[in-house]
Specification:
CATH class of the largest domain: Mainly Beta
Structural class: mainly beta
Strand content: over 45%
Shape: globular
Strand order of the largest sheet: 42-45-50-47-48-57
Number of strands: 57
Helix content: under 10%
Number of helices: 3
CATH superfamily of the largest domain: Glycosyl hydrolase domain, family 43
CATH topology of the largest domain: Tachylectin-2, Chain A
Length: 748
């Protein structure tokens, strides 16, 4: 039996793989407050990272003198970056943290700045290695290294790699940095250069001991970034590396920028904004580090953001941890004030007390602004609408004069909500109010027109959302000398709701008059079974029975589980029109000529948009399939093909056809059983799929030429004229009339 080490490679400042041996129950992370350890003391950990040893996670960060001052009285920022040591906390669930002590004392470093640290484990030297920016006890500044025999220290100074040895960095040092340790145990510094931060680097540590940056293998992955990037960190998901950074805003916050690559040393993609971070500047944080959570039921990434409120004064709390999901194949950031995490399962969910309002304290905007992040002003003028004098907490608050309306539209689960905010005002306006509207019913509001010199809490209760969205806002109608001030807004789900689980069988759909997977208690809900052409409804299962296509719940009082069965009543067919399919993020259209049948399917420009054909084949076996499509774009639009939930073709590149009225056939061979089957065609990129007209089946032994099923590795990228190269031998591209066939990549 092969022995396994108790140590599981992870990282500081990058990727952390959560152990399945961790706690099985969900724990709750609450942001926008100062976290405390299991002894009830404030956690001081900034600019650090996490390491996993066995089933225990060790969180390292820097304790600054100014952090102690601000946590005790969070009313005014300070600039006391005095180094009080590197702290270490341990946890088995990423929520409850035990203080292990100061593991690197100030006496192990020289004076001046010390920070941006991480800890990794070197299997060759059998040492835990701490790296960061700092000076040696003799005041030599550069890349600082310390080592320990234990994850809980103490760490002792090992060496400084001086700036004179780091000429591979522009300006001879890093600007911001974290550490990333890959699955193979190799470790890297993820950094920008020190002045201007316009160069971004992946810098390997020396493999023998991790006590130096290997300049010979350091890669500048992006040069001359206008404006610079800081808060550099990395995570890895599904074999893709994501290099992430923040704007060069000092201690302040920004949206998160990412570049991706399948090789850690590049080449990397063009920069893109991490979806979800633009609405409140990453939940009022800078990029800190990332934690990868893998469990028995799923995986996701924790964005461990740094809120430098001690030095920026921008709200409460230093550590804001948020989930990043990959439902559509791309990373999506979820800005939540409260959420639940289950490390063993690798799952997360929104917390019961989550504040759905984004940028609710107006701290995302670091300077005076005429428009505010995440909010929409009906008519802008030259006056700033945020103020440092009219604020309740943090540094900023909302300040509206004259006649203005500020709104925010949110996508939220259906249910009952309570909207609240703290307000002040001059009084005297003809009207001023806080309101909620566009949630499926008429507007609800409360007046805030009365003069109020002290902060007063205003509340709108029992807002029942039935359409999955809501617009909240504040308005005032008065003169330039009349004003309202607003801060600390909350939109919290207050009423009970029930989950809806629907399972439509092949051949039809289930619709509901109130959208969403959660519906408020007491709602009148109608579920309708709708068969496709050639099919008929065969009955309900679960909470309903019978053949009536409509199932009505007059007053919802429990979770709903419904199944609908459908029966094929048409003729056995080898041709299926795309308009007679189950749509997901797809529209029916008939405006581009050349299609057959009544029209075609226009799949949305989004990863995961799809159509599902309900098939009834008289015979099973391998069949040649012709997929008719039009791609009026300039680039390939790849799709995947699944049958009964199993991916048969991982990627089928559908090339441009020269216009949306030019229809081509893609030909491939699929093995599909006889009888009823579901065949799904799904988009693989944000550009979506081409327009789909139909699919046709031909028996594989019908005498027509059939594409041989080949593994991805067997297909050469070399291509000349109208030929593919398979196993090094040229083969002709198949054609159907004037329509060129396309070679697929089959799933293994």
């Amino acid at each position: 039996m092969k022995k396994m080490s108790l140590f599981k490679t992870a990282l500081a400042g990058g990727l952390l793989v959560a152990s399945l041996a961790a706690t099985a129950t969900a724990q709750t992370i609450v942001n926008d407050r100062f976290w405390k350890d299991t002894d009830g003391n404030f956690i001081y950990s900034q600019g650090g990272g996490v390491l996993q040893v066995g089933d225990t996670f060790y969180w390292y960060g820097v304790k600054y003198n100014g952090a102690v001052t601000y946590a005790a009285n969070p009313t005014k920022k300070n600039d006391d970056t005095g180094f009080a040591g590197v702290t270490c906390y341990s946890s088995k669930d990423l929520v409850n943290w035990k203080f292990e002590g100061i593991v690197l004392k100030p006496s192990e470093a020289g004076g001046g700045w010390f920070g941006r640290i991480g800890v990794v484990y070197n299997a060759k030297s059998k040492k835990y290695v701490l790296a960061g920016q700092g000076a040696s006890p003799s005041w030599e500044f550069g890349e600082y290294f310390a080592t320990s025999d234990s994850p809980t220290g103490p760490f002792k100074f090992a060496r400084v790699q001086p700036e004179s040895e780091m000429t591979f960095f522009v300006n001879n040092n890093t600007g911001d940095q974290t550490l990333f340790q890959d699955d193979d145990g190799k470790a890297y510094v993820i950094a920008s250069n020190v002045k201007g931060r316009t160069n971004l680097y992946v810098a390997p540590l020396r493999e023998s001991d991790f006590l130096a940056i290997d300049g010979s293998r350091t890669v500048n992955i992006h040069k001359s970034r206008v404006g610079g990037r800081e808060g550099n960190a990395m995570f890895k998901q599904n074999g893709v590396y994501y290099f992430c950074s923040s704007d060069l805003h000092g201690w302040n916050t920004s949206q998160t920028y990412c570049m991706s690559a399948t090789n850690i040393l590049g080449p990397y993609s063009e920069e893109f904004v991490l979806e979800g971070t633009q609405h409140d500047f990453s939940h009022v944080t800078q990029t800190g580090f990332f934690v990868m959570v893998k469990g028995s039921k799923g995986s996701f990434v924790v964005n461990a953001g740094d809120r430098w409120s001690d030095f920026a004064g921008n709200g409460l709390g230093y550590n804001q941890w948020l989930p990043i999901s990959f439902e559509t194949g791309k990373p999506v950031f979820h800005s939540l004030s409260e959420w639940n995490i289950n490390v063993k399962e690798g799952t997360w969910s929104v917390g019961a007390g989550n504040n759905y309002c984004l940028n609710p304290t107006f701290e995302a905007d670091r300077v005076g602004q005429t428009t505010l992040t995440g909010w929409k002003l009906d008519k802008a003028d030259a006056n700033n609408i945020n103020s440092t004098s009219k604020k309740r907490t943090g540094r900023w608050g909302l300040y509206l004069t004259d006649s203005k309306t500020l709104t925010q539209t949110l996508t939220v689960p259906n249910g009952k909500y309570t909207l609240s905010a703290y307000v002040q005002g001059s009084g005297g306006q003809s009207s001023a109010k806080m309101f909620a509207k566009d949630f499926g019913s008429s507007e609800q509001n409360v007046s805030i027109a009365a003069a109020a010199g002290n902060w007063t809490k205003k509340v709108v209760e029992n807002i029942t959302v039935t359409n999955g969205k809501i617009t909240i806002g504040f308005s005032t109608a008065g003169s330039s000398s009349q004003w309202i001030a607003v801060d600390d807004i909350e939109l919290i789900k207050s009423g009970k709701s029930y989950k809806v689980s629907l399972d439509a069988g092949i051949g039809g759909t289930i619709a509901q008059n109130i959208a969403g997977t959660e519906i408020p208690e007491g709602s009148n809900v109608t579920f309708t079974a709708t068969p496709l052409d050639g099919w008929e409804f065969a009955g309900w299962s679960g909470d309903a029975s019978g053949l009536d296509k409509e199932y009505v719940v007059a007053s919802l009082g429990k979770n709903v589980n419904l199944g609908a069965a459908f029966k094929f009543v048409g003729k056995d067919s080898l041709r299926y029109e795309a308009e007679n399919t189950v749509f997901k993020q797809t529209l029916f259209e008939d405006k581009h000529e050349g299609f057959s049948g009544k029209g075609y399917a226009n799949l949305d420009n989004a990863v995961g948009s799809s159509i599902t054909f309900a098939l009834c084949l008289p015979e099973g076996d391998e069949r040649k399939v012709k997929l008719t499509f039009a791609n009026g774009g300039s680039a390939n639009r790849p799709v995947s093909i699944s049958v009964n939930g199993k991916v048969l073709v991982e990627k089928l590149d559908l090339e441009p056809t020269g216009g949306w009225t030019s229809w081509n056939d893609a030909e491939l061979t699929l093995k599909i059983p006889a009888g009823v089957n579901a065949l799904e065609i799904a988009s693989l990129t944000e550009d979506g799929a081409p327009n789909i007209d139909k699919i046709e089946f031909v028996r594989a032994d019908s005498g027509t030429t059939v594409l041989r099923k080949v593994a991805p590795a067997e297909v050469s990228k070399a291509r000349t004229g109208k030929r593919f190269y398979v196993n090094g031998r040229a083969v002709n591209v198949l054609r159907a009339g004037n329509r060129k066939a396309v070679q697929p990549t089959f799933a293994k």
